[in-house]
Amino acid sequence: MEAFEIALVSVGAMLVLIYLGLHIATTLALISFIGVWVIKGNTTIALNLLWVSAYDTVNSYVFASIPTFVLMGFLVAAAGMGRDAYDIGQFLLRRLLGGLGMATVVANAIFAAITGVSVASASVFSKLSVPEMLRHGYTARFAVGTVAGSSVLGMLIPPSVLFIVYALITEQSVGAMFVAGIGPGILLTVLFCGQIYIMARWFPNLVFARGVPPAHSTAPDDADKGGAEGGAGALLRKAGPITLLVVLVLGGLYGGVFTPVEAGAAGAFLGLIFALVRRSLTWRGFWDVLLETGSVTATLLFLIVAASMYSRMLGLSGLPSELAAMFEASGFGFYGLLSIYVAIVLVLGTIVDSISIMLIMVPLFLAAIKSFQIDLVWFGVVTVIATEVGLLTPPFGLAAYVVHSTLARPDISLKDIFIGAGPFALTMCLVVFLIVVYPPIATFLVTLRF
Fold first, then answer.
1. What DSSP assignment string belongs to 28-88?
2. pLDDT in tens, 92-128
3. Using CB atoms within 10 A of its CB, is residue 246 exposed (0-12), middle (13-18) or buried (19+)?
4. Most buried residue, 173, 193, 340, 408, by most Cβ within 10 Å?
5. d(CA 10, CA 375)
6. Domain ranges for the chain
7. Between 319-330 and 354-370, two packed helices, what is the crossing angle to 10 degrees?
8. Any idea what the Cα angle at residue 178 is, between residues 281 and 274, rounded to 5°?
């Protein structure tokens, strides 16, 4: 059996093991070890692959940006900035039809700009947005679906952990990836809000519990009772820390003041200051934040080490080169290849988390993509959005599980969350199509900055 045939069999075996429920990192490491062993006929080479992959991963300076940005996200959440973001969105959009749903989307976009973790967004806004929407007469399905759907902005609007992981795999600039996410992130935010308005205007039974907007939904709320100046003053007090954090992290990064690692560390330090000033972080809470950060970082490290082994095994087998030659000879062209790639990613999204999908699929298709001289930054944006659709699709749908476990309400089932998030998943697929048709949505700002 040829080396590339062995690799092809190993990919099939890997998918079988994943469907059987074996942990992704364990599957990748096991398949890679056995693949190299069979290809080279030497266990020593296979064992060396493990420590070389681990050393190269841990030794990568860029990887250090992952724990700093994860820590920043947890500290910002502890500081109560999620509530501030929601209050800002609610103040600006409360008078529009479906305004509370749009406020949740905008709040997620704001929160995404200071965290970069979708799971954190889903958890925070499950507690903030869902009770508020239910109180104002929205359906439970719409409320939980809006929270789950808009939480995906956390991995698209910079800073984003997924963009950092993609940059590590493909050796792209983290800063360029962050800049590329701005346009698609804004577009997705606008389309989500437009989708909510259309649903509220023409399909009110899907949005409002009684099929019509509650009479009090457009009435002045408590924020108006103190007058416009008081409302604006409160808004500015809440927007100030968020703006400062965004300017420090993203402005420092894009302005060349910070490296990605330093930007994450600076943001984490400022988030800690805000949490301490607001007295929202106890010693116990701080310890929990550190434990959560360590847990997430260790999980990602294990995944990336295993994915590095997988990439090296594929390189030894020559499978990526064979795939590239096959697609060139098939006459499918680039768009045929991209369609196959996106379709596989969407299918994997039903059973595998976003980072694992990226670690599996990008090394496998990278050589074929490069053969078409495609901008890898643009390809990264397409990959991130396509993988994020998996957060909303059953049976895996991590965002849906986070919302369900956070609410812990017997009257709201996982089925309700998946149904409610369905329109948001479709809108994300539309955005993938638009970026494929018109790449400057993702690349225009990059060409100006890099």
1. HHHHHHHHHHHHHS-HHHHHHHHHHHHHHHHT-GGGGHHHHHHHHHHHHHHTTHHHHHHHH
2. 887 888 888 999 999 989 888 877 777 778 888 898 8
3. middle
4. 193
5. 29
6. 3-449
7. 60
8. 15
